[in-house]
């Protein structure tokens, strides 16, 4: 008779076939004859592709040469990267004066400085930092890029942007080290404790006002040389158009989507027809309309430059696409959320901005980023209407005398460039999604 | 002993319920498309009164109380709440919504905000309280519904009963004059119903004007001053709980009571 001993069993490690790489390969790559065959065929295809690319693009490629002829002299069937390298500055900056390139670099650096706090832990008031990036940074970078005389409006906005940038940076630094916000930290600088919320506000706004005046005085004596938009080009121009497009398409899309859901018939009909009109027309048509038809409607002598027209067209076009994404997101929010918000006395705009949008936007992230990626790629269409964006620049290499007929290498380089930017964007969106979906469950 | 004492206080409160009218329905009619959901409703609620509304599903009881804070719009007749006639005037609606708290079957808490943020949002924006005051105020009410230790959690981390108590506290934070409850225990697991009802009974003891749509007849017997039975958009019967449960006058009421008791 068997006696069952109630021994305590420790957990046993899974069999080797489940954990070892060999086990994994057996299961996934060589499970049947057909699977094994497919594995080998695929491996062979990968091998010849990679080998071909390696030989053409790297092993036999020419990196240093003065013309396409020289490239051929060195290697007949390797890539002629020398052409791309010679044009690198133009690919990135277009025909922007070479002495002034620091302005573009500084502008891009400032964008990173401005947005860095968004990713830093313990920093408070990230929403304000995000909003100022959208509404104030464009003035700062806009002036840096174009320069020239500042109107009074530009002077005010520029001052606001500089004060805001300084404030954000100080606020973020304090946040990282102490976990406080700038207004909360202020009294400590003066060694005061237990301040009323009101005094705190007053102190904060005084500080802002004082620095505003100081910066305003300073910027009156400062300025940079004007550079006409016709000199803008390359990746820089692509990023400007798509950057403004991205920054304004989302707010525009939100407004249009709310308009389309409005209870007021006039607002609803206007928003709906606007959205449907732009969505049913290809972007290239909108661009042509913007640059050729739009000026006909403007008053005599009133000249808008082509770049502004293009940017407006891109913004409107993408706002309409995002409006539909936002509307889809809004529909995922149950009616109870609106009712809950109404019963605690929140009005329409408060309900939308504190309750509905934060939840809806979270659902929309993949779609929004998808739209941003296609926006970035669509901006290459502006090379058709005569702007020299990155694609325009890459194509003009083949028309440059020393590099006549050099098509392949620049276009491949462009592909790599776009892939890098878009891949980073999509990876970041996945990360954001994962982060936000776990945030309120921890 | 204690129970008797509570009962006593409760009666005193009832008698102390002022004669001041706080809600008045006058021949109110409402349609959803072709469906006539409220038919010539007349109803007067005095300050401090506790009213339980019951009836079969689709009888219009939820719609009735949702008309009070204008979550639903009535098409005919008039509703006066706290001296203000409900009409299209948005200012009036906003005002009434700050005076009327509401608790829903599905809680309708804001899932992306912590419990404390759920409770402070209304007072901060609709009542213009400072952040510190709103938080102190919120903690008082969380204490009262006995979940102050959950203040920093998110709604999804709480049980149904806890979420409903948070929802009650959220409404109370606005310091309302009237509290509406739309089947507050219907979505809860049985063992959680009591904790929510206990909170509501405590609230009733403070003299709050309450209108409760529920099928918890035990609760109705304990706290209600009046029980209203609705069917097909009509108020069929309206009586104090003793008479309502012991000798209902209408056949329809008898049938309903025999089915649920």
Describe this structure in words.
The complex is a heterodimer of chains A (442) and B (261). Chain A has helices at 16-19, 21-28, 33-59, 68-74, 81-86, 88-93, 101-115, 126-135, 137-146, 152-178, 182-189, 197-220, 234-260, 265-279, 283-297, 306-331, 335-343, 348-378, 390-396, 408-439. With 442 residues, chain A is mainly α. Chain A folds into 2 domains: 97-226, no CATH class; 228-399 and 405-435, Orthogonal Bundle (MetI-like fold). The relative contact order of chain A is 0.08. The mean pLDDT of chain A is 88. Chain B is α/β, with parallel strands linked by helices and 261 residues long. Chain B has helices spanning 2-16, 61-68, 90-99, 115-125, 131-144, 160-172, 190-205, 217-223, 241-246, 251-260; strands spanning 21-32, 35-46, 50-54, 76-81, 84-85, 100-103, 178-182, 209-213, 226-231, 234-239. In chain B, the strands form 2 sheets. Chain B has a 6-stranded mixed beta sheet with strand order 6-7-8-3-9-10, sandwiched between helices. Chain B is globular, with a radius of gyration of 18 Å. Residues 1-16 of chain B have low confidence and may be disordered. The interface between A and B is medium-sized, with 21 and 32 residues.
How is this structure best summarized?
Chain A is an all-alpha fold and 442 residues long. Chain A is 71% helix and 0% strand. In chain B, strand 7, helix 7 and strand 8 (209-213) form a beta-alpha-beta unit.
Q: What is the fold's blueprint, element by element?
A:
The complex is a heterodimer of chains A (442) and B (261).
Chain A: H1 16-19, H2 21-28, H3 33-59, H4 68-74, H5 81-86, H6 88-93, H7 101-115, H8 126-135, H9 137-146, H10 152-178, H11 182-189, H12 197-220, H13 234-260, H14 265-279, H15 283-297, H16 306-331, H17 335-343, H18 348-378, H19 390-396, H20 408-439
Helix pairs in contact in A: 7-9, 9-10, 10-12, 11-12, 13-14, 13-16, 13-18, 13-19, 14-16, 15-16, 16-18, 17-18, 18-20
Chain B: H1 2-16, E1 21-32, E2 35-46, E3 50-54, H2 61-68, E4 76-81, E5 84-85, H3 90-99, E6 100-103, H4 115-125, H5 131-144, H6 160-172, E7 178-182, H7 190-205, E8 209-213, H8 217-223, E9 226-231, E10 234-239, H9 241-246, H10 251-260
Parallel strand pairs in B: 3-8, 3-9, 6-7, 7-8
Antiparallel strand pairs in B: 1-2, 1-4, 4-5, 9-10
Helix pairs in contact in B: 4-5, 4-6, 5-6, 6-7
